Amino acid sequence: MKVPRRVTVVEVGPRDGLQNEAVTLSVDDRALLCERLLEAGLRVVEVGAFVSPERVPQMADSDEVFQRVARRPDARLPMLVPNRKGFERARESDVREIAVFTAASETFNRKNINASIDESFARFAEFAPEAHKAGMWVRGYVSTCFGCPYEGAVDPGRVVDVARRLVEETGCHEVSIGDTIGVGVPSQVEDVIGRLAAAIPMEQLAVHFHDTRGTALANVLAALQMGVATVDSSAGGLGGCPYAPGASGNLATEDLLYMLHGMGIETGVDLKKVAAASRALAARLGHPLPSRYLQSAGGV
Fold first, then answer.
1. Are the beta carbons of 151 and 145 closer than 8 angstroms?
2. Of the residues 34, 148, 172, 241, which is catalytic?
3. 172 counts as catalytic
């Protein structure tokens, strides 16, 4: 089996993991979560999002959270920005890495950000050139790449087109291909990644799977075999999207690490320390987390 010798794990728990929680954690709790994840060896931790607190109250005061997290020379702390206003807040906070997001489904994009796909690119054009001029790293997310809660099946050609535009028009250094509602299966992953590889360098691709139907790890393995070496995951398996009915948690970081380490793939991350961070998070949220590793005897 040909897979990468080393995989970069992008931790999205503090942002994507918490955005759908009923409980809104304090700035201190969110900063402490980020610190614990960084101490575990994760070197890319998405700290929060500069979005409207009315729409996503769980991400309120993300600028304060970012300021509380200690800078490490070998760590990256991306922040999600939906528009120019969010970018300005990121720049004021001295953020060095931002992420933008759109979708492969027109209907989902309108439900999620009240804009068409073309309109989302027009928004990016309002600030992406300044981000590049300032030396910021720019990541792009593409949602609903394997299925949409409103439109059903999504044409892989649309995924390729949106991802290509993120690289060519927006100048994204990396594009994360998302299975927002967890409907994808390995054969779809092979198809989509194979098409993307013909349009975008493999080193610029990442994958982002939700485990709604239990296929996330199988999909990761398919992506690894295609040459993808960057995988998004969420501590404890938290996550979901307020605008994607039926979407449950992201792939759990613990479950991903258990598989990768068992296969002899290097990550530089301490699984037990991530599990400890997730257990502390569960106590603050007041409910168990979905991670299978945490639920097993090995996770105790």
1. no
2. 241
3. no
